[in-house]
Amino acid sequence: MAYKRMSRNDAYMNVANVEDDEGVIDLLEVARAILKHIKLIILLCVIFGTAGFSGTKFLIAPKYTASTSIYLTPQVSDSGSLDYNSQMANSKLVTNVVNLMTQNNVMSEVAKNVGMENAKSVKDCIEVTNDSNTEIITITATTTDPKLSKDIANGTVDTFIKTMQKNLNVRNIEIVDKAKLSYVPSGPNAKKNGVLAAAVGLVLGVGYAVLRFLFDNRLRTKEETEKYLGIPVFCEIPEL
Question: pTM for the whole thing?
Answer without folding.
Answer: 0.69
